[in-house]
Amino acid sequence: MNQLILGIITIVFCSAGYFLAWKYFRKEKFHTALLFILLGGLLLRLFTSADSYLHTWDERYHALVAKNMIDHPLKPTLYENPVLPYKYSDWVANHVWLGKGPVPLWAMAVSISLFGNSDYAIRFPSLILSLLAVYLTFLIGSRLFDRKVGLLAAFFHSINGLIIEVAAGRVSSDHVETFFIFFVELAVLLSVTTILKKRSLLFSMLIGAITGLAFLSKWTPALVVFPVWILGEWLAKGKTRKELLQHILAAALAFCLTIAPWLLYVFKEFPDEAAWFFGKLNNAYNETVEQHTGPFYHYFQNLGMVFGEIIWIPVIFSFYQLFRRQAGWKIAALNAWWLIPFVIFSFAATKRHTYLLLAAPAIFVILAYYWFYIRERNLKNRWVKNLVLFLLIVLPVRYCIERTKPFTNVERNPAWATELKQMKNKYDVNTIFFNYEHAIEGMYYTSYIFYTRIPDSAQVKNLQQRGFKVIVKK
Fold this sequence. Notes:
Layout: H1 3-26, H2 30-48, H3 59-69, H4 102-115, H5 119-144, H6 147-159, H7 161-167, H8 174-197, H9 201-218, H10 225-236, H11 241-269, H12 271-286, H13 298-307, H14 312-323, H15 329-347, H16 360-375, H17 382-404, H18 415-422, E1 431-434, H19 439-445, E2 449-450, H20 457-465, E3 469-472
Parallel strand pairs: 1-2, 1-3
Helix pairs in contact: 1-2, 2-5, 2-6, 3-4, 3-19, 4-5, 5-6, 5-8, 5-16, 6-16, 7-8, 7-17, 8-9, 8-10, 9-11, 10-15, 11-12, 14-16, 15-16, 16-17
């Protein structure tokens, strides 16, 4: 089907679904409204995920490593059989690959083993978790405030263009980012629950374990869960200092028990690779990695782009109420959730706009809460109020359309991807292809070895003597 027609059909059905969600929302049939919001979010994600090729950054690397982990889950590899010399510090062409945490890669490996090494298999886990994250946003908004706030926050989450593209693999960090957002949000939801309902120490250990899974998805930014939770507990005053300390220690213990096995294992089995990678992780704060740079105010500048240009109106309202002590621990914790990583990342040399998504659920809930707050104010200039309310919804919708591109007839099945898929099982398993631009994708779609470079005569002779068939693309 023509992609433009498919895009128009998708938007028509999504619009109908969101309209029905609004109708049921007005009737206070909140669960039915939520169902239609989830359906709209699903359609947007299915449409955006329908590209019939692996995306350049970083999906193709995650896909290949996940495919290789099917045979050895505890050894993440990029080049499964590196027949030519390589540097372990060259993350786009090395052997043992520690670039991302194992949890998303394990999930993708399971999906590939079930559905084969297709484009869709690699995206299926993200599709599920991205949709579940919308539901978690509803739960957080509902428990902190009410179901109206939860529903509107879930709507904003379901249509966010960058989150949709990340889950579809179109943007760097892709599926890893999706897993990361999900686990951080789940840990925050559990934190909110234990503040409101005074759960046991075992529940706090669950918070620590889930935060550990977030860490094993995308490392240290997962730690934002702890200050958000501790600040909420402190301001809510639901526990004594001794009780709070006990809960924090229980969570910290569970966190360490979750992450320690993998960290100890990789440093023991792959000491050089592990030392280089985690050193690089630390250097990202002081040095620009792969030209991902920007001014100090980079994230604050991009806040309006990702969440709507006038997102600062509800944010400033929240700051004002906190300053005047008109807002409680709930608004404080939500602001801590997005402000802490934003400030820390702002001081780092390496900057990427996807880092914003760690705090996205907090922004959605703040936006939803103050949308209703503004609507209920009796202002003299009603047209100004209505314009603000209108733009707070329309601008995120516009951003969704910009990112998902339903009205653009883009190429979603390029010739190079078709060619690589058709090569499967046509050659001897010991065949090595050189001078292929899409070498990583070739190794995902087939069982052959691919390189982007052209070998010299000595390398060709050596490989042939070792029993390999060498094919150099002209």
